[in-house]
TrEMBL record:
InterPro entries (UniProt xref): SET_dom, SET_dom_sf
UniProt name for this protein: SET domain-containing protein
Gene3D superfamilies xref list: SET domain
Pfam families reported for this sequence: SET (PF00856)
Length: 169
């Protein structure tokens, strides 16, 4: 395991209590692969999970990650710099990596906490029992969206960054 690069070294944040909404399940055979579903009604603006992220260095990303399955799971992650803004990729641990994309019906929003290196997911509206919980990955997808029958397949080098629009709530 490599040490974090100097660009990712920051002052140590305070401890962060973790939370996960309990009434969720992982379904294995959806048209989008695995997906997260509600097993009870969920009110709007409910915190679903606080997920730690694993941030990749810029070169690690292009040399390794983009050539692996992780490529389909990474989020854009801004690096703190004193000069030109730079963005690398990060993998979200926990349930965060299991949320599928929906262009029209996303019901979950997410925010990055750059200091604590977590992504926080909250419902954007009331969710019914049995509904899939979906975020928006943005407009440039690396796969055929089962909801639109194949529109919007992006060039391979356009990373999932993907999980960019739909941020915030
Ligand atoms: C971050 S993962 C989500 C979890 C994934 N379904 C799994 O089983 O590991 C992203 C992948 O899920 C699939 N996916 C997510 N949203 C989709 C959609 N709207 N249509 C088709 N596939 C989707 C694609 O294979 C995509 O590369």
């Amino acid at each position: 395991m490599t040490n974090p690069s100097p660009e990712t070294q920051k002052p140590k944040p305070e401890d962060l209590p973790l939370e996960r909404f309990p009434h969720l399940k992982l379904v294995f055979d959806t048209p989008k692969g695995r997906g997260v579903f509600a097993t009870a009604p969920i009110p709007r603006n409910t915190l679903l999970e606080i997920c730690p992220v694993l941030i990749f260095g810029l070169s690690e990303n292009t040399t390794h990650i983009e050539h692996t399955s992780l490529y389909h799971y990474t989020y854009n992650w801004p690096l703190p710099t004193s000069s030109k803004p730079q963005t690398t990729q990060a993998v979200v641990l926990g349930l965060g990596s299991m949320f599928n994309h929906s262009t029209q019906h996303q019901n979950v929003g997410w925010t990055r906490d750059l200091q604590r290196e977590v992504v926080v997911y909250r419902t954007l509206r009331e969710v019914q029992e049995g509904e899939e919980l979906c975020i928006s990955y943005g407009g440039r997808l690396t796969f055929v969206d089962v909801e639109d029958g194949g529109e919007g397949v992006e060039e391979v080098e356009e990373v999932l960054g993907r999980i960019e629009v739909g941020e915030g709530d």
